[in-house]
């Protein structure tokens, strides 16, 4: 998502925004991007995810690309994971590419894997996002 002087420029196609003051409890699954300014307690399965500076996620994230500026507790399975300055991440992360900016906080375990989404638990009968995307391409 492009940033324009402190405001995010969001495309209307396949982007879900969880605004400040909104709390989602449960599972969110989509083929597209998720931008979290509020709180999610549960699972997020998507193509790309960004947790804003005041955003909080507690649970499971499975995505191609994840950027964390806010708070996260749980498990992340992402091909590319970026922990920005000032973020707080606790738990287990599985990634192919990891970027840790100076000043980020990470407490937990990190594991590099060629296809980290393949390691994600199958939730509620759902296959990992990488398999879902492969099926659509085939």
How would you describe the overall organization of this protein?
The protein is mainly beta. It has one helix and eleven strands. A hairpin with a 2-residue loop joins strand 1 and strand 2. It is globular and about 35 Å long. The protein starts with a strand and ends with a helix.
Main sheet: strands, sense, barrel: 9 strands, parallel
Q: Indicate the low-confidence ranges by residue numbers.
A: 1-12
The percent range for strand residues is over 45%
SSE order, one letter for each helix or strand: EEEEEEEEEEEH
Helix percent band: under 10%
Strand element count: 11
Rg (C-alpha, Å)? 14 Å
Number of helices: 1
Shape: globular
The overall pLDDT, averaged over residues, is: 85
Which SSEs are present, and which pair or pack?
Elements lengths: L1 E3 L2 E3 L5 E4 L4 E7 L3 E4 L2 E7 L2 E4 L4 E13 L2 E13 L4 E13 L4 E8 L16 H9 L1
Essential attributes:
138 residues, mainly beta, nine-stranded parallel sheet, 1 helix, 11 strands, 57% strand, globular, disordered N terminus
Tell me briefly what this model is.
This protein is mainly beta. 7% of the residues lie in helices and 57% in strands.
């Amino acid at each position: 998502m492009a940033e324009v002087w402190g405001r995010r420029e969001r495309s209307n196609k396949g982007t879900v925004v969880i605004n400040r003051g909104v709390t989602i409890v449960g599972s969110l699954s989509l083929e597209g991007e998720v931008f979290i300014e509020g709180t999610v307690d549960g699972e997020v399965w998507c193509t790309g995810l960004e947790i804003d500076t005041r955003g909080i996620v507690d649970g499971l994230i499975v995505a191609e690309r994840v950027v964390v500026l806010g708070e996260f507790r749980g498990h992340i399975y992402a091909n590319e994971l970026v922990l920005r300055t000032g973020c707080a991440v606790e738990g287990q992360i599985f990634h192919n590419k990891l970027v840790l900016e100076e000043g980020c906080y990470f407490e937990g375990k990190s594991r590099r894997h060629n296809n980290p989404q393949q390691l994600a638990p199958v939730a509620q009968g759902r296959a990992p996002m990488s398999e879902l995307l492969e099926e659509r391409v085939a």
